[in-house]
Amino acid sequence: QSAVSVPRDFEGCSTLRKYFGQLHYLQSRIPMGAEQEAAVPIAWTEIFSGKTVTHEDIKYEQACVLYNLGALHSMLGAMDKRVSEECAAGAFTYLRDHFPHSYSVDMSHQILNLNINLMLGQAQECLLEKSMLDNRKSFLVARISAQVVDYYKEACRALENSETASLLGKIQKDWKKLVQMKIYYFAAVAHLHMGKQAEEQQKFGERVIYFQSALDKLNEAIKLAKGQPETVQEALRFTMDVIGGKYNSAKKDNDFIYHEAVPALDTLQSVKGAPLVKALPVNPTDPAVTGPDIFAKLVPMAAHEASSLYSEEKAKLLRDAMAKIEAKNEVLDQFMDSMQLDPETVDNLDMYSHIPPILMEKCAALSVRPDTVKNLVQSMQVLSGVFTDVEASLKEIQDLLEEDEAQERKLQELLGKVPPPQGSPAGLAEVSRECSKYLEVHEKASFTNTELHKAMNLHIGNLRLLSGPLERVRAALPAPALTEDDKQVLQNLKRILGKVQEMRDQRMSLEQQLREMIQKDDITTSLVTTDRSEMKKLFEEQLKKYDQIKVYLEQNLAAQENVLKALTDANVKYAAVRKALAEVEHKWNTTVQTLVASYEAYEDLMKKSQEGKDFYTDLEGKAAKLLEKARAACQAAEANRQQILEKELKKQPPPRPTAPKPALQTKPPELEAGGMDAGALPPLGSLVLPELPEELRSL
């Protein structure tokens, strides 16, 4: 009901469009077409004859609504200011191209063509007026005006058709006369501006003929304008003043100044029209115009089947794209693996400009313990002192035992036999066993102590470095020395690696966009309102929405070959720089690890140093006791030897007389001093015995 009596404004246009769209949704679900089960009689009044025309076809309702939409647009266009080139031709064009022409004579092909060209011609007029107000170039204005002429010529041909003439009656002659007047008028405007262009190009002969032609055509328009409103007559008079003045001035200048030959008009290039207006498209399924489909829940099985077919087309498109992407990605991954180029570490120069966090942490820890190195040195010095004391004690015990052993050998050699067992002290054997045991322990501990000192000497310098200023720590870390050419090689490689990553990211993004587009692409609603014979065409049209992203993907994939070639060239130049950087990085890492290890070894060194001190302190006490025991045992052994020697001397027979009788033996000085007892015998080494047996004289 609202569509039958619409208000004559843009709200009325909106109502007609919405009703037309809902009819389109309806006829795709309910069989209301001609000779279909749900067809109902639909009646409208023909505009020119006033007759009521009835058809049992839902499409007739749509056609009439569409005709009224075009008519209402044309009325609003006539009421509007002439500054807009939008026109009503869209509704008449859609009606001509999509609906039968047999419903009524006012919907015949010729009438619709007449309406379309009248609408387009008037829209082009609006654009022409706007172009002249904007002072566009003369040649462009001439072409726009020539297109107005072309549209009106098409309208005039439709008016001259016999069917149109019989349908329109008297108004046919009026319309034809007005259209012909406009044809001449706008032809005159076109030639006026062609004359202006000739004037700009200083072609004064052409200028004259164009202005003359414009004047002739304007005179024809004036003849056809009899009976037109005063506004039209006034416009024609004004145009005559302009063109007449231009022609007279141009002819006078050429006759008296330029003297150029005036060519014939038919020898000049004709002005080709420039169609700059177009019919507003009509889309019966545009939800922004029709509003929500009120029959949306009614989806025929055929539409579901068609939707499945369309889904398969989308899946095929995705499979093709993914096959290409995966093939290129595989080549790219293999290439990058063979190159062993990590964009994150290919240029690691930044790491040399600062101390790594783990090292900073160790420096900070040592900064609050300023006596670290001093404590370690002192601890090791104490350990060395105790070690030396133990070593001296054990050496002295060894010396005592060796001296005692030497004395025993001398005694045996003196007496020529082994001393009786009962005369040897048992303590020396025990001292010897314990000394051997302590020496073995000391030897093992000595190796450990040496290793501990080596470790301390290894780490002490690093600990001093870590305890010092950060500048010294940074200076101690290796750093690469690159030339400007080396830096340029690095920058170039980084740039190309960045391109590789950019290519990867773009490819992933395009793939994701394609997947999302396919996921969201549901044309079931369009399939409902599309004829089965048009399905293939609809699929093709709908799949065109993927063309742009497919082009982007193809460009991305095609770029890979060039990018990898550039990367290969850059990598060749990078080889020498890479080797140098790898060596410096290895040294840098080794230095950092060594410094960290020195810090972590500090506590262990202190602990082992303390354990060493405790061990050697204990060993020192035992060695001291053993030394005392050794001294006592050695003294006892010496006393024992003296007793043995004394006994042996007492067993010696008196000396035998010889001739001549020797002088009386005198006592040694030691005996003369007061006698000699067993307890005061001198050491064997200094003892001089009288009348020694033959076997002892060599001693």
Please explain how this structure is put together.
Helix content is 70%, strand content 1%. It is mostly helical and 699 residues long. Strands 1-2 form a two-stranded antiparallel ribbon.
- Counting helices, strands and paired strands, the structural category is mainly alpha
Q: Unreliable stretches, pLDDT < 50, 5 or more residues?
A: 661-690
Largest sheet: 2 strands, antiparallel
In percent, how much strand structure appears in the residues? under 5%
Oligomer: single chain
Q: What strand line-up does the widest sheet have?
A: 1-2
Question: What is the CA-atom radius of gyration, in angstroms?
Answer: 62 Å
Report helical residue fraction. Answer: over 70%
Shape: elongated
Q: Tally the helices: what do you get? A: 20
Distance between the termini: 158 Å
Average pLDDT rating: 80
**SS elements, strand count:** 2
What is the ordering of alpha helices and beta strands? HEEHHHHHHHHHHHHHHHHHHH
Coiled coil: 387-417, 493-520
Keywords: Coiled coil, Cytoplasm, Endosome
Pfam families: ALIX_LYPXL_bnd, BRO1
Region (Disordered): 645-699
Keywords:
two-stranded antiparallel sheet, 2 strands, 70% helix, 1% strand
